[in-house]
Predict the structure.
Amino acid sequence: MKCKSLVSTMLVVICFASCSNNSKTVHEETKPDSTTVTTDETIPDLEETFPGLYNYLHLQDSSFSTSGFEGGEIEQKPDSSDRKQDTSRLHLYYPYLLFNSDSSMALDLVSYNYVAHLKHGKTELEEAGPDYEVALIDFKTGRRKQLLFFGTTGTVLDAKWQDANTILMAGATQWKGADSMLPVLWKYELSTRSWFVFQYERMISADWSGYKKSFIKD
């Protein structure tokens, strides 16, 4: 009897150890890959964030809705290197730069894309060409970082600082003729240099060329 009892006890111990090891193995196999980035990032509400742009697009395509944006995962976008910026050459562009709360940094959507000149004592901007650059200027270090660059099939139509660490931008990355575009939202976090991209689910019947960008002041 003692022998049988001892055998039974050993079987229970072996069974328990086996189950414990299997459980550990399954846990390790299902552990997410450290190189895979997931997030539950909330899609910015275009109607609330950029109401002028939302109304402009909605008037052209009544089916356009903020609920049509998709995305939220961190985009693995190579971070561009900084380059020196002569801030004294930006004097005419200062009214059009989007500064952060303490004016130490600014989002630049104009100096590459427009030629500034004085006319009757007032600065006027003239489009420079088809390419389009969005840059971040650090006035403390005198450095400039390119954030986005487009050819003829992309642009940023509006932008703002969500907070001291976050930039929101809205625009399009595809344009087929004068009546079709793909809306896109970009979110950039300075502290982590992370990009979040939200694309609309389909092309909409709209023409971006008539939109008056809020950062282009009269």
Q: What stands out?
A: The chain is about 20% helix and 35% strand.
